[in-house]
């Protein structure tokens, strides 16, 4: 049994080949039935004609409908009029399941498609996105393995908040109230004292009421933590990682990018190093774009869109005001009120895909920041302990993998990046 993509070549021309998969399109014209078949690798036009098949067989094949599953064998030949340049002349077949009424068709409402996600995700476009997503996940890990990082795992049931209490999901844990993790960061910080350079890929959960195009309540979070790194060291690894991932997609998924009509040159033109812009200067620059931002304003989806439509390359925004970020970020000793952190904003209006920076490593400073944020240091006793026993400078970041897929694929909504998106209005199927 061959995969469709493998046989689309002159090496197989005039030979008998066998494929199995699903009916993608079917049409009968007089005594001939054209069945375009799909499998995970591609599509091919197959022809049933009475030259090779009996009357009953012709009847059986011509009455098939889309998404029926079958196996076909026959001779392959070059045919310039066929969708992928080759055609198979069917000589024998086996039907696995004759499908009556596949509910997915063109021009259906969005809610209907979301209810039928389990069927809709067979579409060619979504298959292409999933292949690109798969490359992105692999390339992320490859990059860090290549650079001597260790992959680690952290718990999903947690009792502390990293990114503020308002977006926590509560879970009843045998009578105790615990939360689903928002970030593995604090656990990764504990692991650098033995492994120094660590990364993980895991879901993070945010009970944000945001209805933007870029928020999920459950998203895939790739996080990194490194001993001895400062904010600049971290950004230097990050931009190389982004370039490495884009190159992997260009190498492995050119066909898939074409299937979803992604402008490939946009990706080819991404250059490192990425520009570093201070938050203060970006606010200033926003005037050029006719925006009315003030120092201290948070940059949400709309603001980042307004800024980043004017960029073709990602930018690092550094030096956010202390008030805009969570308590663990290290204040900049040279610029009071600013912190040593960065967000990576993607071009073409996509905005934030990474948040990271240096962590506070001085015990008193951490305790002050915890209290300033009206939190109880006892809840963070294990995190605080790290500053008592061999504390060191260190940095890290969190990358929203779904957002990265969204940008690389040029999609307009984060829901299109993941098989089963979880949003405030949807947890099924
Ligand atoms: O900026 P965030 O909240 O940072 C953290 O969680 C840090 N503790 C990470 C770290 O330093 N280890 O989230 C990091 C990234 C964002 O830049 C964004 O790409 C993504 O996670 N993200 C989301 N993606 C989809 N849906 C959401 N609701 C997201 N919230 C954050």
Sum this structure up briefly.
With 429 residues, this protein is of the alpha+beta class.
Notes on the structure:
The chain has helices at residues 4-7, 55-62, 110-115, 117-120, 124-146, 185-195, 231-252, 254-259, 264-268, 279-285, 301-308, 363-372, 381-385, 401-409; strands at residues 16-29, 32-38, 43-49, 69-78, 86-97, 150-151, 157-158, 170-173, 176-180, 197-205, 218-227, 275-278, 315-318, 341-346, 351-358, 394-400. The strands form 3 sheets. It has an 8-stranded mixed beta sheet with strand order 6-10-11-16-15-14-13-12. Strands 1-2-3-5-4 form a 5-stranded mixed β-barrel. It has a 3-stranded antiparallel beta sheet with strand order 7-9-8, with no helix packed on it. It is an alpha+beta fold and 429 residues long. It has 14 helices and 16 strands. It folds into 2 domains: 4-97, OB fold (Dihydrolipoamide Acetyltransferase, E2P), CATH 2.40.50.140; 117-417, BirA Bifunctional Protein, domain 2 (2-Layer Sandwich), CATH 3.30.930. The structure holds 4-amino-1,4-dioxobutan-2-aminium adenosine-5'-monophosphate. 4-amino-1,4-dioxobutan-2-aminium adenosine-5'-monophosphate binds at residues 162-163, 182-183, 185, 206, 208, 215-216, 219, 221, 223, 352-356, 396-398, 400, 402-403. Residues 162-163, 182-183, 185, 206, 208, 215-216, 219, 221, 223, 352-356, 396-398, 400, 402-403 line the site of 4-amino-1,4-dioxobutan-2-aminium adenosine-5'-monophosphate (4AD).
């Amino acid at each position: 049994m061959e995969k469709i993509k493998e046989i689309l070549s002159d090496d197989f021309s005039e030979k008998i080949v066998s494929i199995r998969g699903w009916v993608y399109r079917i049409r009968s014209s007089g005594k001939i039935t054209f069945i375009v078949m799909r499998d995970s690798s591609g599509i091919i036009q197959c022809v049933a004609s009475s030259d090779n098949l009996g009357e009953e067989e012709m009847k059986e094949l011509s009455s098939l409908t889309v998404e029926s599953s079958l196996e076909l064998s026959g001779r392959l030949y070059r045919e310039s009029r066929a969708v992928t340049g080759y055609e198979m002349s069917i000589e024998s077949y086996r039907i696995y399941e004759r499908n009556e009424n596949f509910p997915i068709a063109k021009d259906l409402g969005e809610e209907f498609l979301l209810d039928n996600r389990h069927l809709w995700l067979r579409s060619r476009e979504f298959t292409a996105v999933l292949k690109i997503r798969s490359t992105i996940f692999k390339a992320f890990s490859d990059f860090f393995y290549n650079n001597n990082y260790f992959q680690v795992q952290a718990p999903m049931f947690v009792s502390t908040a990293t990114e503020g209490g308002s977006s926590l999901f509560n879970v009843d844990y045998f009578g105790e109230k615990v939360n689903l993790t928002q970030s593995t960061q604090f656990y990764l910080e504990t692991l650098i004292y033995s492994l120094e350079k660590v990364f993980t890929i895991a879901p993070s959960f945010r009970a944000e009421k945001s209805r933007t195009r870029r928020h999920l309540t459950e998203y895939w979070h790739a996080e990194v933590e490194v001993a001895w790194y400062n904010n600049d060291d971290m950004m230097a690894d990050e931009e190389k990682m982004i370039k490495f991932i884009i190159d992997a997609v260009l190498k492995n998924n050119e066909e898939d990018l074409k299937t979803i009509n992604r402008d490939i040159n946009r990706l080819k033109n991404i250059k490192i190093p990425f520009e570093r812009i201070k938050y203060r200067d970006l606010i200033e620059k926003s005037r050029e774009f006719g925006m009315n931002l003030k120092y201290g304003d948070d940059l949400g989806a709309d603001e980042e869109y307004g800024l980043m439509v004017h960029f073709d390359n990602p930018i690092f925004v550094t030096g956010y005001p202390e008030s805009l970020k969570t308590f663990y970020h290290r204040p900049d000793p040279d610029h009071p009120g600013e912190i040593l952190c960065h967000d990576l904003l993607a071009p073409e209006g996509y905005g934030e895909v990474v948040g990271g920076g240096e962590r506070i490593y001085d015990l008193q400073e951490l305790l002050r920041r915890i209290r300033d944020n009206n939190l109880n240091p006892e809840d963070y006793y294990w995190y605080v302990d790290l500053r008592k026993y061999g504390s060191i400078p260190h940095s890290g970041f969190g990358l929203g993998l779904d957002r990265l897929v969204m940008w690389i694929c040029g999609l307009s909504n984060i829901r299109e990046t993941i098989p089963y998106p979880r949003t405030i209005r949807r947890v099924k199927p």
